[in-house]
Design a protein that fits this description.
With 486 residues, the chain is mostly helical. The chain is built from 17 helices and four strands. The chain has a four-stranded mixed beta sheet, covered by helices on one side.
Length: 486
């Protein structure tokens, strides 16, 4: 049955791509008078209106639910609920304003032909230095456009971090730390972009009719390389990953991993609290080299082994969990953390890591093929403001993948959300099978409260935007699974 389902899904995916290919060929040959920029902006506008409609639905739910429902009363106290509601409303209002700005920015960049201007400016810049090569011009364009966008969006990021997150008790960064972090991210992202785009442009120009195979192979190899090196070389540039010392928590996690044959090699705690009070946990690695990372904000004082060390790294007595100042404790206890990891390792056990990866490779290969169909249309770049006959490869990639593939990107985003939600339910079921159902429920409730996540969601909004099902849906599903597996 599983073999048959995989074949059906593969056939459906390839069928969609073939239909899209035929459609684009027809579009290119039969609608020569279509202005591709206007067509693309029409979809951008439709997408903006649809997304705005969805977020207004959620805003109405948050705005109108001023007091806890009977279901929510079982999950959080009134004080926490009001804080979560206030936090959610502020984020939604900010998001609506930011989305409006982004929409009009996209219109302005397109209608004023800003992209052709920046491309021409990059060419004149390297000519001034005595160079004239498309690969060099492409890299200069990437760096300058990235810096410009970083500066333009800096006020939005600052307001989100130092006003909204600060007001609700999540931000832990200073201005100095923030700007240092931002500069590192900009430099690193541009270096990675140059490393992938330079050979990609070359392969597209060199590869002939079968360039899409070479381009896909490069992207796949690069993706795998980044997966292998990210946690060892890139992530430590931003955060500190401390190996978990011998402790009851480490023993419990190792026992969990051993019970399902998860090849755990290393266990870390990352100092996420230096940035934010939001919590998380994840695993990474390939084959027999798997590692688990716990955010320190996920652990309460009773189970965080790093709180059981003095300044020299020597063991001292573990905290009792008593809160001397009378503040509300945050984080999960040891049993709840293990339950959370039972869910996360369920993703590994059920193949949720490799299935989307393979599906994405099929989609990327198909999109490179479709790119080869569209790039032959010289009118397309002309409609976006480039001179007739000018078809720089990077600009073709930008226009086609960002604008022309807009409907495809939206479709795949919706399908990805639905697939991820299904995987979340399956991982919850797996954790229940390990006997972690009640503990998983209590950990979810604590994490929602700690992160001030609003517990109620509009069904239409959540179905299109939530990669994880809303809390009440997950709790109800876990209850049903406990009854089924009892």
């Amino acid at each position: 049955k599983q073999w048959y389902q995989r074949r059906v899904r593969g056939a459906v995916t390839m069928g969609i791509l073939c239909c899209v290919s035929d459609y684009l060929k027809t579009l290119g040959s039969s609608f020569d008078n279509v202005n591709y920029m206007y067509w693309s902006l029409a979809f951008v506008s439709a997408e903006f209106l649809f997304d705005t409609y969805l977020i207004w639905r959620q805003r109405r739910v948050v705005k109108e639910t001023e007091t806890r429902t009977e279901d929510v009363k079982k999950l959080m106290d009134e004080e926490t609920y009001l804080k979560a509601r206030s936090y959610s409303l502020e984020k939604i209002n900010f998001g609506i304003i930011h989305d409006c700005y982004s929409y009009f920015e996209t219109l302005g960049v397109s209608l004023l032909f800003i992209t052709p201007f920046l491309w021409d400016f990059a060419g004149k810049s390297i000519e001034y230095l005595g160079y004239s090569h498309e690969l060099i011009q492409s890299n200069v364009f990437l760096w300058q456009s990235s810096l410009i966008m970083a500066v333009i969006h800096l006020p939005w990021s600052l307001y989100r971090t130092f006003v909204i997150e600060e007001r609700h008790g999540f931000n832990k960064m200073t201005f100095g730390f923030y700007f240092k972090d931002t500069v590192k991210k900009i430099v690193l992202s541009n270096v990675i972009s140059s490393l992938i785009m330079t050979p990609l442009i070359y392969l597209i120009q060199w590869g002939g009719d079968y360039f899409f195979i070479y381009a896909w192979g490069l992207v796949f190899a690069f993706t795998m390389a980044v997966f292998f090196i990210y946690m060892d070389f890139i992530a430590p540039m931003f955060d500190t990953y401390t190996p978990v010392p011998d402790s009851p928590l480490k023993t419990a996690i190792e026992e969990l991993a051993s019970s399902i044959n998860f090849p755990l090699t290393k266990l870390y705690i990352v100092d996420g609290s230096k940035r934010s009070n939001h919590s998380n946990a994840f695993f990474y690695g390939f084959f027999k080299n798997k590692r688990i990372v716990l955010f320190d904000t996920l652990l309460d004082d009773t189970c965080n082994p790093l709180l059981g060390l003095d300044e020299n790294g020597n063991k001292k007595q573990f905290p009792s969990g008593e809160d001397d100042e009378g503040k509300k404790k945050k984080g999960c206890n040891q049993e709840e953390v293990v339950a959370v990891l039972g869910h996360e390792l369920g993703h590994w056990y059920l193949g949720h890591v490799y299935k989307p990866l393979m599906l994405n490779q099929v989609i990327i290969l198909g999109m490179f093929y479709l790119f080869g169909v569209l790039v032959k249309n010289e009118q397309m770049l002309a409609d976006f403001g480039f001179p007739h006959g000018s078809q720089p490869t990077l600009m073709s990639l930008t226009i086609i993948f960002q604008y022309m593939f807009g409907p495809l990107n939206k479709l795949f985003s919706i399908l990805s959300t639905q697939l991820t939600r299904r995987f979340e339910f399956q991982a919850d079921s797996f954790a229940v099978g390990l006997g972690k159902g009640p503990l998983l429920q209590s950990s979810l409730i604590k994490m929602v409260a700690d992160n001030l996540s609003f517990p109620l969601a509009d069904k239409v909004y959540s179905s299109f935007t939530y990669s994880h099902p809303p809390l009440l849906e997950r709790l109800a599903f876990i209850r049903d699974e406990i009854k089924k597996q009892a």
